[in-house]
């Protein structure tokens, strides 16, 4: 993310300052990706499915064990799930039949959710629905709450062989603790940590973003012994920020997660990619971010390895 981008987006979210905010942001906020993309492999737009990755996704997601969020840590199923076995259907609050169900009128009507994850669809809707408006007159996603989205239980995902979240295992207790404290599903928190730093607490971003959650230095006040990388402090601060963001977006989790990558209502393809040919190519918004987050990470799938998306606009920046 772009914690700084997101912070600034918050400040400028009334709309009339977008242009100046973007100009400001393009000065040097590093849109870092823990794993470099390979431009030569992926066209900027257009789907580039790879069968091996499809298989990988289905391997993880073939069973109907999607769960409604949020999930308390105490709900963690027994840690011995065979990857393929059908699992008991837990009580769901929002989703039914393993996919999201929300009102979605107008231009964003076709949710396009699929039980299985593909490069461009998944239980939380197709990328074209999640990104509704980006390719035309600006991002204007449906109203989706935390309770509406389909998520996996983090402890269950961690128990799988070759878990996409393996690097996060040492921090499960912390994710659970702040999940409870802020009412954010555990896997959402860990998804940010994977997307931002691959759960590596010593990660420092290009603009000085700190630690696992890549928080901006201005948020480090009160860190224990001044150590902003401290996992407990770092996760708490990141979750606190996200909870505030969710609130300021009226509970719309699509807007809130997008904002973590600097997206805002009205974002267009042109504005998201404007930095592409500048000296700060990584200042672009990753236009696959929301899809990668909800249909990849939140389903226990490594969204980067699975090459999830269709824009891959950040790939042109190299590593
Ligand atoms: C990028 O893709 C090209 C073409 O497939 C390949 O030759 C090259 O090794 C890849 N680079 C990286 C860093 O993966
Ligand atoms: C989802 O994946 C499972 C496991 O690979 C497969 O058996 C099933 O047919 C798929 N369902 C759909 C609707 O594609
Ligand atoms: C998954 O759920 C769908 C819809 O409820 C059902 O048709 C399908 O048979 C289920 N698949 C498995 C593997 O349980
Ligand atoms: C960046 O340059 C490429 C290649 O010249 C071009 O196709 C693309 O449209 C440019 N992007 C922007 C945002 O100007």
TrEMBL record:
Classification via InterPro entries: Lysozyme-like_dom_sf, Transglycosylase_SLT_dom_1
Keywords annotated in UniProt: Hydrolase, Signal
GO MF assignments: hydrolase activity
Superkingdom of source: Eukaryota
Signal peptide: 1-23
Annotated Low complexity bias: 66-96
A Pfam cross-reference name: SLT
Residues covered by the Transglycosylase SLT domain: 174-262
Region (Disordered): 62-99
PANTHER family: MEMBRANE-BOUND LYTIC MUREIN TRANSGLYCOSYLASE C, SOLUBLE LYTIC MUREIN TRANSGLYCOSYLASE-RELATED
Name of the featured protein: Glycoside hydrolase family 23 protein
């Amino acid at each position: 993310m772009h914690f700084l981008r997101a912070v600034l987006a918050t400040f400028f979210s009334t709309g009339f300052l977008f242009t100046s905010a973007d100009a400001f942001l393009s000065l040097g906020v590093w849109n870092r990706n823990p794993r470099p993309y390979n431009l030569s492999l992926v066209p900027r737009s257009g789907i580039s499915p790879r069968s091996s990755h499809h298989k990988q996704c289905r391997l993880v997601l073939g069973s109907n064990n999607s769960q409604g969020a949020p999930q308390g840590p105490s709900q963690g199923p027994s840690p011995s799930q065979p990857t393929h076995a059908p699992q008991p259907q837990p009580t769901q609050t929002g989703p039914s039949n393993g996919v999201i169900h929300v009102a979605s009128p107008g231009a964003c009507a076709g949710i396009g959710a699929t039980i299985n994850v593909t490069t461009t669809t998944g239980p939380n809707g197709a990328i074209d629905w999640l990104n509704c408006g980006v390719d035309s007159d600006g991002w204007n996603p449906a109203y989706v709450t935390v309770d509406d989205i389909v998520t996996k239980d983090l402890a269950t995902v961690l128990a799988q062989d070759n878990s996409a979240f393996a690097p996060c295992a040492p921090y499960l207790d912390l994710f659970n603790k702040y999940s409870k404290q802020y009412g954010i599903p555990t896997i959402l928190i860990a998804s940010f940590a994977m997307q931002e730093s691959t759960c590596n607490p010593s990660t420092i971003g290009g603009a000085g973003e700190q630690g696992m959650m890549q928080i901006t230095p201005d948020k480090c006040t009160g860190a224990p012994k001044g150590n902003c990388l401290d996992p407990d402090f770092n996760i708490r601060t990141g979750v606190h920020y996200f909870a505030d963001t969710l609130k300021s977006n009226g509970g719309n989790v699509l807007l809130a997660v997008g904002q973590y990558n600097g997206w805002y209502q009205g974002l267009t393809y042109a504005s998201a990619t404007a930095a592409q040919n500048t000296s700060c190519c990584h200042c672009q918004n990753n236009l696959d971010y929301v899809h990668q987050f909800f249909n990849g990470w939140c389903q226990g799938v490594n969204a980067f390895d699975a090459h999830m998306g269709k824009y891959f606009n950040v790939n042109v920046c190299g590593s």
